[in-house]
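Structure in, sequence out. Go:
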């Protein structure tokens, strides 16, 4: 005689199969979205190298316009410029007089600047904020070495971002901004 009692395994198979089919249908019904890129760049991050370079060049140009020379040399010192990149920072971030002497605040004796905030020296590519000033007898290199944030020629006012690499979308080296 045959029993009408079913085994637990016999009932579980159709239930499991139904659950799997329902799960697959639910996954297929979800809206598809494109996978996130491995290193997403916001539009502002993509343009940060250009914006930083432009901002620093504007500050250098403002100082040059007001003083008739590029910043970086302590006033009337006759010292080599490359050893005094701190003066470049001070002359751009503080108020100055016509001789390039600096003061903490704008006042009648120091009417120029500040041209830039201290954070304006931050290189968005390599995270550095130091500036390498070329000596009078040095030429601008043809590419970046990454040992500083910026390379500046205080004789000509030429500035380059000292970051190795390039913009992925265009292939333009950071040095060439």
């Amino acid at each position: 005689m045959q029993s009408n009692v079913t085994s637990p395994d016999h009932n579980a198979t159709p239930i499991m199969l139904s659950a799997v089919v329902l799960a697959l249908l639910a996954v297929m019904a979800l809206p598809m979205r494109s996978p996130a890129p491995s290193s997403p760049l916001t539009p502002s991050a993509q343009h940060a190298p250009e914006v930083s370079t432009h901002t620093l060049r504007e500050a250098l140009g403002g100082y040059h316009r007001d003083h008739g020379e590029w910043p970086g040399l302590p006033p009337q010192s006759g010292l080599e410029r490359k050893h005094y990149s701190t003066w470049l920072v001070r002359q751009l971030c503080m108020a100055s007089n016509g001789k390039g002497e600096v003061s903490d605040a704008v006042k009648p004796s120091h009417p120029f600047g500040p041209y830039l905030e201290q954070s304006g020296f931050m290189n968005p590519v390599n995270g550095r904020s130091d500036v390498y000033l070329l000596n009078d007898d040095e030429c601008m290199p043809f590419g970046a070495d990454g040992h500083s944030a910026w390379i500046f020629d205080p004789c000509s006012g030429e500035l380059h971002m000292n970051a190795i690499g390039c913009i992925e979308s265009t292939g333009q080296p950071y040095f060439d901004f």
